[in-house]
Amino acid sequence: MPNSSSLNEFLLLAFADTRELQLLHFSLFLGIYLAALLGNGLIITAVACDHHLHTPMYFFLLNLSLLDFAFISTTVPKSMSNSLRDTRTISYSGCAAQVFLVVFLLGGEYSLLTVMAYDRYVAICRPLHYGTLMGSRACVRMAAAAWLSGFLNGLVHTANTFSIPLCQGNTVDQFFCEIPQILKLSCSESYLWEVGLLVVSASLAFGCFVFIVLSYVQIFTAVLRIPSEQGRNKAFSMCLPHLAVVSLFLSTSFFAYLKPPSLSSPALDLVVTVLYTVVPPAVNPLIYSMRNKELKDALRKVISWTLFSSGNIAISLHR
Question: Which segments cross the bilayer (predicted)?
Answer without folding.
Answer: 23-45, 57-76, 96-118, 138-156, 195-223, 235-258, 270-290
